[in-house]
Design goal:
Elements: E1 2-6, H1 18-32, E2 36-42, H2 49-52, E3 56-65, E4 68-79, E5 82-88, H3 90-93, H4 108-125, E6 132-136, H5 143-151, E7 161-166, E8 174-176, H6 179-182, H7 189-192, E9 197-198, E10 201-203, H8 204-211, E11 214-217, H9 220-225, H10 236-241, E12 246-248, H11 276-289, E13 299-303, H12 312-322, E14 328-332, H13 337-349, E15 354-357, H14 362-371, E16 374-377, H15 387-393, E17 397-401, H16 404-409, E18 423-425, H17 430-444, H18 447-459, H19 464-479
Parallel strand pairs: 1-2, 1-6, 2-5, 6-7, 7-11, 11-12, 13-14, 13-16, 14-15, 16-17, 17-18
Antiparallel strand pairs: 3-4, 4-5, 8-10, 9-10
Helix pairs in contact: 1-19, 11-14, 12-17
């Protein structure tokens, strides 16, 4: 089976969030299952030099973007057994300076139209005609429509199927309807018949949902949630209409990269049989953060974008009560000013109890996963979530709200059976969350119960193997 995996970001080249992690780990897992999978993404200027220097140019051609005839370079490299291809055009993807983000520019519609058009032309350049094009999020949502409109009559393209994965329904790629003619060279009929129309604009994500052969999202619960008005972001009706081709496949995490036995970022290596070294990691983390160094004080970690989606308004509401508890809190991340300011305030006022690192630091993130006792993730909505799975891999018990992938991965502690791998609460309510935290703090005092839960968490299988096998089943289903 041949799969072309199309993404706007991929670790270790570029990453802003979970999509970057998935775009590396899933193809790697598919490869282990015997799939001929290749990955393609833009060649951003922010790709690290040590990787950029290994890229080899294999083709140069032009891509039509509306009336524009644009240069396109194609580069490739092999990384950990996977072939990666990079679409090069400095006008679109070289955004230098302090604020060289991947997205959020005024010409994003043009940038990712160019990328989508280029992807379909690349296949003939590398003589790789996949069975399935696996596309991700709004940036690539137009590919199934372009494939149908302009390529389906060509023999080598005629049998290609498309699978569209929604990682976060909130970001839909909505632009003025003029993009159909000006950028995409598509008939306005697609707007008039409501195939791509979205409240007077054109939605790249809607195009992906309508024209892909199969639509997946990243947890079973999220599939159900996005078909409701609260979670549907204005697309719930469309998703209900297309429920026959919706499926939830839970993300995993890379067990080679995230392994407490081998992780070079943590202070002391450990496994399920050497949890005394996890305590040593905690003491070292307390020391470098300037917290009171004490193994008996429960340490709660947060590694996240500091945005409202992640439930930080709940945390903000109960912070005065939280800091009165016998605990420590470490926060790592950047985001909305109000949350950054809130954590900085409590960090300065309660410097022995609260540490706020308003930055991105992958090494410190691993140290927080390994050194914390609990991991707080009270999201308003969470398509899948990586943090809770990372925490469990390192024996840190997640405290989550029961939504999306958080509900699918965290089993709350059952005091009657001793089962569970974390703690959870149902309603989006600050004091319900506080009660859940307090329950964890109380259980922390009973080390027999606690270490049984820690072992349950570490035994939880959140690897990519099961998910990769499920994706293969889905690929086969749309090919048959």
């Amino acid at each position: 089976m041949k799969v072309f995996y199309v993404t706007s970001e991929c670790w270790p080249f570029v990453k802003t969030g979970g999509l970057g992690d998935v775009s590396y780990a899933l193809p790697k897992a598919l490869k282990k299952e015997g799939v001929d999978v290749r990955v393609i993404l833009p060649k951003y200027s922010t790709i690290p030099t040590y990787l950029k220097d290994k890229l080899r140019e294999i083709a140069v051609f032009n891509v039509q973007v509306g009336w524009r005839n644009q240069y396109c370079g194609l580069l490739e490299m092999e990384y950990e057994g996977i072939k990666f291809y990079f679409i090069d055009n400095e006008y679109y993807f070289k955004r230098d300076g302090e604020f060289a983000y991947l997205y959020g520019y005024g010409d994003d519609a043009e940038r990712f139209t160019f990328f989508s058009e280029a992807v379909l032309k690349v296949m003939e350049k590398i003589d790789f005609y996949p069975d399935v094009i696996h596309i991700n999020d709004w940036h690539t949502g137009m590919i199934p429509l372009i494939l149908k409109d302009r390529y389906s009559h060509l023999e080598k393209y005629s049998n290609i199927k498309t699978l569209y994965t929604i990682h976060n329904l909130q970001y839909q790629g909505v632009f003025g309807k003029e993009v159909l003619g000006d950028l995409l060279n598509l008939s306005y009929e697609y707007y008039d018949n409501k195939s791509v129309e979205y409240y007077g604009g054109v939605s790249f994500m809607k195009a992906g949902i309508v024209f892909a052969d199969k639509v997946t999202t990243v947890s079973k619960t999220y599939v159900d949630e996005i078909q409701t008005e609260f979670y549907g972001e204005g697309l719930d009706g469309l998703l209900r209409e297309n429920s026959h081709k919706l499926e939830g496949i839970l993300n995993g995490i890379d067990y080679d990269l995230n392994n407490p036995i081998t992780d070079p970022n943590i202070f002391f290596k450990y496994d399920i049989n050497s949890l005394e070294n996890k305590v040593k990691n905690k003491l070292e983390l307390q020391k470098i953060l300037g917290l009171e160094v004490n193994p008996d004080i429960p340490l709660i970690g947060i590694v996240s974008r500091l945005v409202s989606q992640k439930g930080f308004d709940l945390i903000s509401y109960i912070m005065p009560e939280l800091v009165r508890e016998d605990l420590q809190l470490v926060v790592l991340g950047t985001g909305e000013h109000q949350y950054q300011s809130m954590f900085n305030y409590y960090s300065s006022r309660y410097c022995k109890k609260v540490s706020a690192r308003i930055t991105f630091d992958s090494g410190l993130a691993q140290q927080i996963y390994s050194g914390s006792d609990m991991f707080l993730m009270p999201s308003l909505f969470e398509p899948c979530g990586i943090g809770q799975m990372m925490a469990m891999r390192y024996g840190t018990l997640p405290i989550v709200r029961e939504t999306g992938g958080l509900k699918d991965t965290v089993s709350p502690y059952n005091k009657y059976t001793g089962e569970g791998n974390g703690f959870s609460f149902t309603n989006y309510n600050a004091h319900e969350m506080l009660y859940c935290i307090q329950k964890g703090l109380e259980l922390y005092k009973d080390k027999n119960i606690w270490y049984n839960l820690v072992k349950n968490a570490m035994y939880t299988d959140n690897s990519w193997k099961k998910s990769a096998q499920k994706y293969i089943e889905v690929y086969q289903g749309i090919l048959n």
